Amino acid sequence: MENFPVINLEKLNGEERGATMEIIKDACENWGFFELINHGISHELMDTVERMTKEHYQKCMEQRFKELVATKGLEGVQTEVNDLDWESTFFLRHLPQSNISEIPDLQDEYRKVMKEFALKLEKLAEELLDLLCENLGLEKGYLKKAFHGSKGPNFGTKVSNYPPCPKPDLIKGLRAHTDAGGIILLFQDDKVSGLQLLKDDQWIDVPPMRHSIVINLGDQIEVITNGKYKSVMHRVIAQTNGNRMSIASFYNPGGDAVIYPAPTLVEKESDENNNLYPKFVFEDYMKLYAGLKFQAKEPRFEAMKAIESNVNVGPIAAA
Ligand code: OGA
Ligand code: NI
């Protein structure tokens, strides 16, 4: 089996730039995932984020999670649970406007550190989007622009802990899904594993690696690239021992951004008439996704196509 793609971003500045761009391209085409090292975000900042996230979990979240498990009687389940996940989470929004100051129970220092981390991740996401553009033959800035809408991108962070689970075969840490948005940057626990992606019908571990950032591509990148890059199914298996921290940041289009395949990636004769992917407003996709997250993405694309053709046909039918 091939190895999970690891990209040393520092090599973009030297004579191995070409080879590194090729690894990124191969990862985007064949994995939908890759792991970044030497990404420029300071290890010290990452250590602080990790320490404060774990402290916050123990202080404010763990007890609540245990109570939830008890209330729902999850400790003793005997059959597969398909309607919830074995995770404890909270969300932070950074763009278009930060809501960090409104999130309850966070220490001021933790808010400050998460803001700083988010700013670094935002820059990294935009740098990565341009690397994708380069590999796709799109002009620099194309993806950033495609995500812009009227207020700029949506950028947010889901802070998760996957506590030890007595029945990981019956309750997933997080059920299989593709991510709806653009590009996702994940800072995951360096010791407790659990994240897996689906490749060639097999679940493959995304290996924990200290101070790395895992990148994956969401449904919007699949649409804009006309399927050249695909969003890939992934899931989290909770462990019977050990609590897994994961901090996933989602760099997504703005709510009113109109998403459609880049014209230069649509091959004239073959794709144009049997359009593979729909054109839609991103927030409409998110409304659909909210109810269908844990299902295959294809019916979501089909549903958006149906809406699109209604919109297009409407005025003609009325005339
Ligand atoms: C997600 C996700 C993975 C993880 O939140 O969409 O896939 O490791 N998270 O928490
Ligand atoms: Ni995901």
UniProtKB/TrEMBL annotation:
Pfam families, sorted: 2OG-FeII_Oxy (PF03171), DIOX_N (PF14226)
Organism name: Quercus lobata
Family, similarity comment: Belongs to the iron/ascorbate-dependent oxidoreductase family.
Name of the protein described by the UniProt record: aminocyclopropanecarboxylate oxidase
A single GO BP: cellular response to fatty acid
Transmembrane segments: none
One example GO MF annotation: metal ion binding
Record keyword Coiled coil present: yes
UniProt enzyme class: oxidoreductase
Gene3D superfamilies membership: B-lactam Antibiotic, Isopenicillin N Synthase, Chain (2.60.120.330)
Domain of life: Eukaryota
